[in-house]
Amino acid sequence: MAAATAELVIGWCIFGLLLLAILAFCWIYVRKYQSQRESEVVSTVTAIFSLAVALIASALLPVDIFLVSYMKNQNGTFKEWANANVSVQIENTVLYGYYTLYSVILFCVFFWIPFVYFYYEEKDDDDTSKCTQVKTALKYTVGFVVICALLLLIGAFVPLNLPSNKNSTEWEKVKFLFEELGSSHGLAALSFSISSLTLIGMLAAITYTAYGMSALPLNLIKGTRNAAYERLENTEDIEEVEQHIQAIRSKSKDGRPLPARDRRTLKQCEERLRTLRKRDRHLEFIENSWWTKFCGALRPLKIIWGIFFILVALLFVISLFLSNLDKALHSAGIDSGFIIFGTNLSNPLNMLLPLLQTVFPLDYILITIIIMYFIFTSMAGIRNIGIWFFWIRLYKIRRGRTRPQALLFLCMILLLIVLHTSYMIYSLAPQYVMYGSQNYLIESNITSDVHKGNSTLSVPRRCDADAPEDQCTVTRTYLFLHKFWFFSAAYYFGNWAFLGVFLIGLIVSCCKGKKSVIEGVDEDSDISDDDEPSAYSV
Questions:
Q1: Of all residues in the chain, what percent carry a pLDDT higher than 70?
Q2: Is 228 exposed, middle or buried (0-12, 13-18, 19+ CB in 10 A)?
Q3: How does DSSP assign 225-242, residue by residue?
Q4: Which of 58, 130, 220, 330 has a CB 3.0–4.6 Å from the CB of 306, allowing a cystine?
């Protein structure tokens, strides 16, 4: 008992250290991208807090799996201290942890982030007072609060279980719904709301993460263009534009006014010349900076990292394809959310995670790496694509130049993607997420030559969907993910879309040439001419 308690304490201590690491990561990440000229304390704190809460919620997944696995021995029997009361207490602790974190996520998504966003949108008007900003932000935020309330109500009263008596009255049916709500302690309402956000996160993952998984490694492998060569080309363009401007102005030397067409062309050439001179200053700064020389020395290491990331991406894609193919061939169908009874087609990650779980905390480390990998690839996708509303580009994400509103959008997207990461890990390793490394005992008939008869022997077997409920404990994460079958069905089809977008992104990334060393400078109309160039923005 003492040894078991000590190991649990060590596990929670590691989880505490992970929380500190998450907070440090979020602070560095947000500070790295926020604009130095337009940084705001409230938007910065909101972005750091919301992203940290999402990462902490995802960090509960390996804790949940570890606890349900730790209650049983490898031979399929429960440990001495893991009686019914202790098991329920552990399960409730994890469940209340999810309640708390998911409630905070709902608060951030449907109230605090929209409020801060609309507050800074109103702040752009110089004549607007603080009181008017708060009132306008609250007015727009009410719509998000109404949506959240509707999701909670739908989730609370959607009839997952029908009354056994088909001849029951309408009042009895309503009473049954309220009894179901009370018995689930609000699990269905919260699960429906979080699953709705996870569905949006799936769309964001399909858009950004799938493309980023191919764009990030290939950009590392290909690298950027040479700054000196780019500056030489830019100088030639400057000379060409200056000659064109002189040719147009020479038409009005005798005092005659320029035609309207020449005036428009002259204005366009002057704007082009300002952009080229701004590029020249950036290129000159980057060409002579020590950071460029340092990155040049690290070029072989970047190529190695790029090869490693593309191999990891292929590992994920192969595992996801095999898992989805297994569901397509052997699942119970769309009405069950494509649930699998056992594993028929094994994939690499589904085999690796249970093996790593035997040496704590190797599986914890691997899941953390997977989540961080999804974040970095999502960020690469967002930087390459930008934030769009259908065909309208809303914001661009750049290091040190991201506006407060764009920063809130960025963290909102990452928050939703991190929520979807839990289901992605389930898709990659369904048995591991459901039961961890739990085994249960089954009776097997064995023929013995010594006793000239049959004998019964209890044999341990890996827990799966066919296992008895009293022998295998399902993780709380799985209950949240699969409370509603139609969300599981949507995630299944979303995985196929994810694979398709990855292949398209891989082809596009292979066909694209090297990026400019100052890519985005010529498009940044909001950067003034006196802005100081930065080598870190590349």
A1: 82
A2: middle
A3: --HHHHHHHHHHHHHHHH
A4: 220
Contact in structure between 332 and 341 (CB atoms under 8 Å): yes
Q: In angstroms, rounded to a whole number, what is the distance separating the alpha carbons of residues 167 and 182?
A: 23
Backbone φ and ψ of 202, nearest 5°: -65, -40
513 touches 266 (CB < 8 A): no
- 390-408 pLDDT, tens digit per residue, is 777 777 877 777 888 888 8
- What is the torsional sign of CA 223, 229, 233, 234? positive
Cβ 162 vs Cβ 197: under 8 Å: no
Q: What is the DSSP letter of 453?
A: E
Q: Which two tokens stand for residue 448?
A: 């013995």
Quick one: pLDDT at residue 525? 43
* CA 50 from centroid of its chain's CA atoms: 13
105 sits in which H/E element: helix 84-107
Report how far residue 80's alpha carbon sits from residue 2's, in angstroms, rounded to the nearest whole number: 12
433 neighbors 340 (Cβ within 8 angstroms): no
Q: What is the dihedral of CA 99, 100, 102, 105, to 10 degrees?
A: 160
pTM, two decimal places: 0.77
Q: What is the pLDDT of residue 494?
A: 92
With tokens 């990855």, the residue in question is: 502
Query: Which pair of tokens denotes residue 393?
Result: 């580009």
Q: From 346, 495, 318, 351, select the one nearest 437 (Cα to Cα).
A: 351
pLDDT at 103: 85
Say which residue the tokens 């440090």 belong to.
24
The residues near 236 (Cβ < 8 Å, ≥ 6 apart) are none
Q: Which sequence spans correspond to the domains of the chain?
A: 13-161+169-227+289-445+458-519
What SS3 class is residue 443? strand
Amino acid at 417: I
Half-sphere exposure of 371 (CA within 13 A, CB side): 30
**Residue 215 burial class via C-beta count within 10 angstroms: exposed 0-12, middle 13-18, buried 19 and up:** buried
